[in-house]
Design goal:
Blueprint: E1 2-4, H1 8-21, H2 33-44, E2 56-58, H3 64-70, H4 74-82, H5 95-106
Antiparallel strand pairs: 1-2
Helix pairs in contact: 2-5, 4-5
Length: 129
């Protein structure tokens, strides 16, 4: 069932979107947010609110702005998109498309992020020896 999204929730979403458009941090290094937006509008907008100008979405599908705020770990979002789930269709996204969608989702989160590791590598953990 589709319900209109209006009022305070839409205003909050638009504010986060507007602020996010002016901030470009390390999260964009792995993907192309603009291309991710194109993919999201094509595949995700049927259920999720993916842009400030979108007026309807499914009630049980969180808006991308909520996902960005609640899921700060890019890897977690990537893994979710790569693994089909019962409520989400298997879109058979490529790794690059997933990176682009994650970058698009991430642009809704205006909170400062820690600097990315060089070359996208995680810090090497000490080994037990």
């Amino acid at each position: 069932m589709v319900f209109p999204r209006r009022g305070p929730a839409l205003l909050a979403f638009a504010s986060v979107l507007a602020a996010g458009l002016f901030w470009r941090g390390p999260a964009f290094a792995g993907g192309d947010a603009a291309h991710g937006g194109v993919i999201a509008k094509r595949w995700c907008a049927a259920c999720h609110v993916v842009s400030a100008d979108q007026r309807t979405a499914k009630v049980d599908a969180p808006p991308f702005a909520d996902i960005a705020q609640r899921r700060p770990d890019d890897k977690e979002i990537s893994m979710f998109l790569a693994d089909p789930h019962p409520k989400m269709p298997d879109m058979s996204l490529t790794r690059k498309e997933i990176e682009d969608i994650v970058a698009y989702i991430r642009h809704f989160d205006v909170r400062p992020r820690p600097p990315a590791e060089p070359n996208g590598k995680d810090k090497e953990q000490p080994r037990r020896g």
